[in-house]
Amino acid sequence: MHVVVNAAMSVDGKLASRRREQLAISGPEDFDRVDRIRAAADGVMVGVGTVLADDPHLTLDVTDRRVQRQRHGRPGNPARVVADSTARTPLDARILDDEATTYLLVSEQAPEDRRTELADAGAELIVAGDDRVDLAAGIDRLADEGLERLMIEGGGELISSAFEEGLVDELSVFVGSMLIGGRDAPTLADGDGFTEEFPALTLDDIEQLDDGVVLNYTIDG
Ligand SMILES: NC(=O)C1=CN([C@@H]2O[C@H](COP(=O)(O)OP(=O)(O)OC[C@H]3O[C@@H](n4cnc5c(N)ncnc54)[C@H](O)[C@@H]3O)[C@@H](O)[C@H]2O)C=CC1
Ligand SMILES: Nc1nc(O)c(N)c(N[C@@H]2O[C@H](COP(=O)(O)O)[C@@H](O)[C@H]2O)n1
Questions:
Q1: Ligand nearest to the CA of 34
Q2: Does the predicted model carry a pTM greater than 0.90?
Q3: Ligand 1 pocket, 190 CB below 6 A?
Q4: Alpha-carbon distance 71 to 85, whole Å?
Q5: Which residues of the chain have pLDDT under 50?
Q6: Among 164, 170, 168, CA closest to 204
Q7: Among 3.30.70.970, 3.40.50.450, 3.40.430.10, 3.40.50.970, what is the CATH number of 2-219?
């Protein structure tokens, strides 16, 4: 699976405020760029923290992007994927509408009744991992379902895990001209953090968009 991480952060590396409210870090040009990355992907993934905070839709919003996607032989929206160890996705979450297939990656800890409710609401459940979602195993299962290219949109816990497990091939980050601050605000890579071996990034290009810049990296190794 080819894995692309994309997110928008402030100059101080925050994805949202300490209240975990979605902020306008980027603007319309960046959302158009995000739409193009989604259109090229077979799946768009977030952690359940993002579902609970933002209730995102994770579909293609611009009609001509859907047309572009059809030209690439991928009709409709990419699948939506949520890492949700204990099946906390609300039954009225936007990702459970019928606009795209939604895979919920859960662990063995997910209660049976929640699994049943979410399956009844239309989600495809994939069990991977004992206590929390085993991302590598979950991504292998998505590959079995025919997904070849996965976009990870956040948040910081999920992005951090994907880097820790060496699953990321590309990183694109929009840096908005703002400071958010706050030691408890989510950052691009939360989790425990690296202490000895740090992911090696190669800067491929820089693009000015809206009132910020997009940094595009490939991940070495
Ligand atoms: N500015 C941006 O581009 C974006 C900002 N956000 C922001 O990020 C915040 C949410 O981020 P987080 O709280 O870090 O939540 P998250 O979206 O990274 O989800 C983390 C949760 O996913 C579940 N999970 C299951 N398996 C996991 C695994 N192997 N590794 C990591 N997590 C796993 C756990 O329950 C964990 O608490 C929100 O405030 C949202 O607004 C989210 C996406 C994009
Ligand atoms: N690219 C970008 N710029 C910002 O300023 C943002 N706040 C975000 N946030 C993420 O965008 C996703 C919204 O998805 P839908 O439009 O509902 O499909 C979601 O993942 C937000 O956290 N992104």
A1: 2
A2: yes
A3: yes
A4: 35
A5: 71
A6: 170
A7: 3.40.430.10
